[in-house]
Automatic annotation (TrEMBL):
<dbReference type="GO" id="GO:0016272">
    <property type="term" value="C:prefoldin complex"/>
</dbReference>
<keyword id="KW-0143">Chaperone</keyword>
<dbReference type="InterPro" id="IPR009053">
    <property type="entry name" value="Prefoldin"/>
</dbReference>
<dbReference type="GO" id="GO:0051082">
    <property type="term" value="F:unfolded protein binding"/>
</dbReference>
<dbReference type="GO" id="GO:0044183">
    <property type="term" value="F:protein folding chaperone"/>
</dbReference>
<dbReference type="Pfam" id="PF01920">
    <property type="entry name" value="Prefoldin_2"/>
</dbReference>
<dbReference type="InterPro" id="IPR002777">
    <property type="entry name" value="PFD_beta-like"/>
</dbReference>
<protein>
    <recommendedName>
        <fullName>Prefoldin</fullName>
    </recommendedName>
</protein>
<dbReference type="GO" id="GO:0005737">
    <property type="term" value="C:cytoplasm"/>
</dbReference>
<comment type="similarity">
    <text>Belongs to the prefoldin subunit beta family.</text>
</comment>
């Protein structure tokens, strides 16, 4: 049983759009992962610097266009919270990347199957 050309074109177009969307989203997710890793590394370095400082050292955090004196334990707590948040976000990005890779590969295989079945 043969599929009419119009229906075949429509199927190929839909699969192609799905494949292109998955490819675009993969690029975005990978960029987000790189930014996430960079931010995580910055927090790690800041945390290690904070631990090496004497307890009486004044620490300032940027708030908008000004700096506010903040106790070291408060800064360490913020760094810990942000690190946990980034770990959760990275985990979600990894899941999303896996899903998009599978979608991309399935779309690619579907296109090959449709084109292979036609010839």
């Amino acid at each position: 049983m043969s599929i009419p050309n119009e229906a075949l074109q429509k199927i190929l177009q839909e699969i192609g759009q799905k494949k292109a969307f998955a490819e675009q989203q993969l690029v975005l997710v990978r960029q987000q992962k790189v930014a996430n890793s960079r931010e995580s590394r910055m927090l790690q370095l800041t945390g290690s610097e904070m631990e090496s400082l004497p307890k009486e050292t004044k620490v300032y955090e940027g708030v908008g266009k000004m700096f506010v004196c903040t106790p070291i334990p408060d800064v360490q707590k913020r760094i810990k919270n942000e690190t946990e948040s980034l770990k959760t976000e990275l985990s979600n990005l990894n899941k999303k990347e896996d899903y998009l890779e599978k979608t991309y590969e399935n779309s690619k295989a579907s296109i090959e199957q449709v084109l292979g079945g036609r010839g």
